[in-house]
Write a structure and sequence with these properties.
Length: 260
């Protein structure tokens, strides 16, 4: 009897062991399934996001630039401040005029005051004689940069001028170094080119003049080169309104000289 009972116990233990072995892999397989699926989903999320984000931002920036409001026309920023036409007895007619810079800024007000103080009294009616040979201005608009040049020539050989450059979006005046910076030009290179071109202009005009060494040196001195007023002409070329000195006539002239 004892042997039969022991035999039955062994059979029961064997059956339980076989059942446990068949069930455990099932639960092990089910437990691994979530960790296998997770990396697949995570890998597909960022695959296309970086590729589409950059072009979309670039397109938006280009569209914004294309639809930016224009800065207006030249007549929006410059007009005649004073003008006079004079007919002399000989029948000759001369027209004198000076500009007003139409920008709402302190720099523009300062420029307008300086122009009026320097040239305002010369724009008037003359009868028999006028010491003013010519008095006029030029104005150019290159993108947002406004250049205004006023020049007057007088009897006796003197000529004088004023020159200004403004950013019309801010109303601020730009000095020489700033103008070179915003137009991607090297200031030192511009000064070198201006001196070279001014030397050519000066020697062509006054090179044969005797006793003129002092005036030539004054004209080509580095301080006079730096004092020249840079501006952009109608084609966007960088120019300079420079002072010239010579031992003849009134002794002082202005000249527009290429600076590039």
């Amino acid at each position: 009897m004892k042997r039969v009972t022991a035999l039955l116990s062994l059979c029961l233990i064997a059956a339980l062991t076989l059942s446990a072995c068949s069930i455990f892999p099932f639960f092990r397989k089910r437990a691994l399934q979530p960790t296998q699926a997770a990396p697949t989903e995570a890998a597909t999320i960022p695959a296309t996001a970086p590729a589409t984000a950059a072009p979309q931002k670039a397109t938006e920036a280009a569209t914004a630039a294309a639809t930016q409001a224009p800065v207006g026309s030249l007549s929006d920023y410059v007009r005649n401040a004073k003008q006079a036409s004079v007919t002399f007895k000989e029948g000759n007619t001369k027209t004198y005029r000076i500009p007003e810079i139409v920008l709402d800024s302190a720099d523009a007000q300062t420029a307008n005051k300086e122009i009026m103080e320097r040239f305002g009294d010369d724009v008037r009616e003359y009868t028999d004689y006028s010491p003013v040979i010519s008095l006029d201005y030029e104005a150019y608009l290159n993108d947002t940069l406004l250049s205004v040049i006023v020049s007057g020539k007088y009897d006796g050989g003197n000529s004088y001028g004023l020159c200004y450059v403004f950013d019309v979006t801010s109303g601020n005046a730009l000095n020489n170094a700033t103008l070179c910076s915003v137009t991607a030009r090297r200031y030192d290179d511009v000064l070198d080119t201006l001196k070279m071109n001014l030397t050519t202009v000066y020697d062509d005009r006054f090179g044969s003049l005797p006793g003129n060494d002092k005036e030539r040196s004054k004209t080509l001195d580095s301080e006079n080169i730096k004092a020249a007023r840079l501006y952009l002409d109608g084609s966007g070329k960088l120019m300079a309104l420079a002072d010239l000195y010579a031992a003849v006539g009134g002794g002082h002239w202005i000249e527009s000289v290429a600076a590039e």
